[in-house]
Amino acid sequence: MTAIDIPGYVIRREVGVGGMASVYLALQTSLDREVALKVMAPALAADPTFSKRFLQEARMLASLAHPNIVQVYDVGVTQAQLNYFSMQYLSGGDFAQRVRLGMSEKDLLRILEGIGNALGYAHHRGYVHRDVAPGNILFDVSDTPLLTDFGIARAFSQTARITSAGISVGTSHYMSPEQARGSDVDARSDLYGLGVLTWFGLTGKPPYEGADGFAVSYAHVFEPIPRLPAGKEHWQPLIDKALAKDPAERYQSAEEFIAALAGIEPRGVAATAPAQDAPTRVLQRETMASAIRASEAPTRIGVLPSMEASAAATAASKAVGNSPRSWLPLAFAALGILLIGSVGYALLAGRGNEEPTKVADSSEAAPAPGSQAIASPVAATGQAQDPPSSETPRARDASSSESFGADEFGPVMPFDLASVPTVVDPVAQLVRQARADLAGQRLTNPPRVNAFERFSLALRIDPSSKVAKQGIMDTARAYLDLAEKSIAVGNLAEFASYLDKVEEVAGSISEGADTVADAKSRRKREVDQWLAAALAASNGLDAQGAKAAYEKILAVDAKNTAARDGLRAADRIGKPGYGFSDLVDGRKGPELVVVSNSLAFARHETTRGEFSAWWRAAGQRQFAGKEPSCRDRESIFRSSRKRDWKSADINQTDRHPVVCVSFAEARAYADWIAKQSGKRYRLPTPAEWEQVARNAPAGTCASANLADASYRKLFDARTGAACDDDNAATAQVGSYPAVAGVFDIDGNVREWVASCGKSAALSDGCREHGLRGRGWLSLADKESVLESDSYSEDVALNSLGFRLVRELEK
Predict the structure, then answer these.
(1) Quick check: do 95-271 and 606-804 share a fold?
(2) Is 131 part of the annotated catalytic residue set?
(3) Among 267, 350, 445, 726, which is 20 to 30 Å from 58 by CA?
(4) Would you tell me which CATH number, out of the four given (3.50.50.60, 1.10.260.40, 1.10.510.10, 1.10.10.10), belongs to the domain 95-271?
(5) List 47, 74, 131, 744, catalytic entry
(6) Whole-structure pTM over 0.70, yes or no?
(7) Across 706-710, average pLDDT
(8) Which of 70-84, 308-322, 391-405, 699-713 has the lowest mean pLDDT?
(9) Fold of 9-88
(10) CA distance 484 to 476
């Protein structure tokens, strides 16, 4: 049905029909790309409940940007008032088809990890899928598994449900026990479905079966967890936990499930669903056609065409065996397939043994279409050839690594390649087919019949083939080009998927190392761009902006640790205890920690290095020649104009707190930071300073830099604690434990505060200003952490520094 008219789309054909909607393959003309167009059924359009569910699915998918979740491109309403949305077109089949074709345990692990990541992402966004079934896992052209059909998903916090309480929603074979009972579900219900999916991938069938949906649901609730067949026991612990009847006993998050997958060592083939007899003559003909097609093209890398053709021909002969008039031509067809496959096998087997008859070099052109793969007894030279020996070749010993087990056609015997004349080089033929696949963008799909697998098979036959290696590199670069086109239109998930393919394809040969490095570098550039955006948003206390940036990073690099950590911490942005810093003059500014909804405190005192940047930029012009006389150890008798912040008569580096600074200089520094950053920086008020300092523990050599044995030794003093922290004067900032994220609030240096006198509000006319706390020469037994004093604004001490606070925007 193509009568539906949606501006901007050309509908090509219907690809699926459900009870709620139809899905069409369509061309989105503005971007010249194929899309899947989901259009609501006309009979349901007038029902607001169904319209709501349909739009809910569209909104959910549109909000979920993840490389393993199908993407929504557009949402709208047709002229006939039918809701629709367009989404990513997935042409690689579904999970059930993959199981029927047969897959390795390694592939199963890859698919489960991808879907687990998709579910984890959805769960973190507040959604539970509720229908994790094989038909809802599709594959794109890059063989990436994608989770789709969120039609019955809902938010954890959603209270107004579209479905009624007590009604189970989902596919019965994949329902969790609580879902089958119609109870509330959460993320653990999806993980149960993922466990059922694992069982299906391993065995080719669901864990529970019954005469009807009720019987299956009953089994999920009451029947014990089944046991895996022999050879799959290493999966049983994961199955037992994933299929636990009680949600509390299952994996509690998708991350836990994925961690369990990492502990499984793959052991070969996962499962192949049992074949079913073809019910009609049409299907019988399809089966034979598939067998014939299988003989014409290689299948999996490392699997000989003859073996695939023999298996297909056997299946075909079984399917048509009951037809009295069809057996003879089909028998001849099967015999022909077997003969062609045997020659292919002989070509490959002979390469590892005796020197074969000379064949065309893989770099030479293949014969013209129509030439025969097997020549007549008259060779290409026109000379008659000796007929093949009638002597039966000796079978290889069973222990030989090249021997194969007998199949329905009897044991496979080796051939003397010299007795099988040929005019076709199989490498050249594979390369020619692979080049056609490359031109048709069949890079790694469809399975077995694509450029990468053909080039790889050619390389296995002839490891020195330069054209096969070049073909693999061209395939990798084709994916690199696709990645660039995807990022140009902002499709991050597709960009990441294509880069994965670049690394997979180019990484299969040593010559591809530079291309793999190029893909990694391209991914890193994109990640770094969004990391910078996330950091800027975090420092700007923009939690939503930071989340969005981290999610984009994960779309490009799903395992990026910084993004995962950042996303987990994003909810704390702007809340008390959150640390950040602003950019000042293009560089990282003071490190801050939020102490209230309206104020952030500098994590440490202003350092000599930070102060010197201001001095060079502005301070020297303002205060040169006006610097105060600096007192040593707070004695008026040890005051000197030669002592200043650059040379305070104590050992200091750029990481020590700046001292010998007047109140006027400290205030000017705060004004400069505010101007450079565009934020409101200033000195703390006495009340703000004391609010933080009250939480400081009693000062000791382990928690604060106060007068101690090192101080007594350096200054020949009689007072000071007996303990020793090796800091006679100031210590580097951050050397002692923080109090609510703030370092050195007790000890190290006293600090200027914004007040007139000790505590009065700051005003333009006052000449004396307050200071708070204890410094490196303070006595722990005679002074408290809330010690207060005041000095004239032109006084400076080598035990007195300052720190800043920043007012937060509401």
Answers:
(1) no
(2) yes
(3) 445
(4) 1.10.510.10
(5) 131
(6) no
(7) 95
(8) 391-405
(9) Phosphorylase Kinase; domain 1 (3.30.200)
(10) 13
